Amino acid sequence: MPKSIKDILIEMKNMSELMVDLAYSALLFNSKDAAEEVIKLENKVNRLNYQIKKESLLAARTVEDAEKLTALLEVGEAAETIADSAKDIADLVLKDMKPHPVFKMVMEESDEVIMRVKIAEGSELIDKSLGELLLATRTGMTVIAIRRQESWIYGPDRNTMISAGDSLIAKGNETGGSLLIQLANGETKLEDLEYEDYTEE
């Protein structure tokens, strides 16, 4: 069954957001794996945008229909532009261009931080799913990728399990980052954060 235009737009939105986060992470941590994933996702976004155009042409029956669908097509084009820009950032990593020290300073002073944290033995996060952990609610940090030995998990969902030795790439605020580090190191328990208010918007 073909996807609806709405479903395609949702997928494009999610992909383009993930691409921006991954591209910045790739540059910050000099990760060619993450950069290559951005390139793959950009190709997918391009294909989805083509699909939106095709479905729109099939769906338009009147001039009024065409006018309404034009707005959706513009959203699709905007999502593809975001994806293209993320690809441009990822290309810097693949060309072995090291980030200027100013870039790291900008990232550190940004309202939203991107960080990498390793899960230590004894951490309460081990063998629990992201859905169980509710890290975004408890710490304000969202996991955008997981490095597990030699492989990556990009855009993990609520069913993704955390294992000892995993390296999490997460984004959020500085306070939440400190809490996530403590959880990852086994220095803090989940129950200690149960009633704290670090919920994201």
Automatic annotation (TrEMBL):
Xref: SUPFAM superfamilies: PhoU-like, TrkA C-terminal domain-like
GO MF term set: monoatomic cation transmembrane transporter activity
InterPro entries from the UniProt entry: AAE_transporter (IPR050144), PhoU-like_sf (IPR038078), PhoU_dom (IPR026022), RCK_C (IPR006037), RCK_C_sf (IPR036721)
Source lineage: Archaea, Methanobacteriati, Methanobacteriota, Methanomada group, Methanobacteria
Protein name: RCK C-terminal domain-containing protein
Coiled-coil segments on the chain, per record: none
Record-level GO BP terms: potassium ion transport
One Pfam short name: PhoU
